[in-house]
């Protein structure tokens, strides 16, 4: 009787172990934040205001719309994938966010060197920052467009390989996508921080930020010249599945394990 119980318990534990491994098989996360704990940990505000009380990272409007709200998280990743969701409360000429996913610099005046995206309400370009928060120049000619980010989440993924090759994907839904931008640049090959600058009369929101040291999206050959996506999504492929997925699987596995073990004990005792 005890042998049967041990066998069943062993099988269930094995099943739970396999289930817990599944979500982690596609990416190696270095750091991530879904802001769901509403605690301001790991981030430093260097100028203006930010909040995460609504389970997202959100800039706080400043009376002077020309003032940047600046926040950073330590991040030394230089090869891998940076993913996040982005939303604006409203557009306008002076409303934009610069997200330097690789950044280095000194405090103050928070003038960073690095690579990033400059995002407006329905367009984005890939920029290189040369140590001046007011000047980040396009590293790639052209602008990519997407459905209006005002009130709608838009998902961005950036990958960089070990030879300085960047790819930017907008609203990717699989692990193979056509990039919005592709460029190679090797001037900066180190990073201290992930920095967000936002300015304007409407606030910006960031959520589901995941930084991994693996290339989680690979490129498809171009099939069209249109980089616009029809369906903005708040979630992404398995590569950037947010942490709650792991917890759900584990809880489901644990629940199943508990039920099977209890049922086994009752069944075997009756015998
Ligand atoms: Ca969140
Ligand atoms: Ca937090």
Q: Helix content range of the residues, please?
A: 10-25%
Strand pairing plus helix content: what structural class? alpha+beta
Terminus-to-terminus distance: 8 Å
Low-pLDDT regions? 226-253
Q: How many runs of DSSP E, i.e. beta strands?
A: 18
Overall outline: globular
How many domains make up the coordinates?
2
Number of helices: 2
Any idea what the radius of gyration is? 22 Å
CATH third-tier fold name of the largest domain: Jelly Rolls
What is the CATH homologous superfamily assignment of the largest domain?
Exo-inulinase, domain 1
Q: Can you identify the CATH class of the largest domain?
A: Mainly Beta
- Ligands present: calcium ion
In CATH, the architecture of the largest domain is Sandwich
Strand content: 35-45%
- Arithmetic mean pLDDT: 81
**Biggest sheet details:** 8 strands, antiparallel
Query: What is the string of helix and strand elements?
Result: HEEEEEEEEEEEEEEEEEEH
Relevant terms:
single chain; 2 helices; Jelly Rolls; 271 residues; alpha+beta; eight-stranded antiparallel beta sheet; binds calcium ion
Brief characterization of the structure:
The chain is α+β, with helices and mostly antiparallel strands and about 270 residues long. It is built from 2 helices and 18 strands.
Describe the structure.
- With 271 residues, the protein is of the alpha+beta class.
- Helices cover 17% and strands 38% of the residues.
- It folds into two domains: 1-26 and 243-271; 28-236, Jelly Rolls (Sandwich).
- It has two helices and 18 strands.
- Strands 1, 3, 4, 6, 12, 13, 15 and 17 form an eight-stranded antiparallel sheet that branches. Strands 2, 5, 7, 8, 9, 10, 11 and 16 form an eight-stranded antiparallel sheet that branches.
- Helix 1 runs antiparallel to helix 2 (244-270).
- The chain is globular, with a radius of gyration of 22 Å.
- Bound molecules: calcium ion (CA) (2 copies).
- One calcium ion binds next to loops.
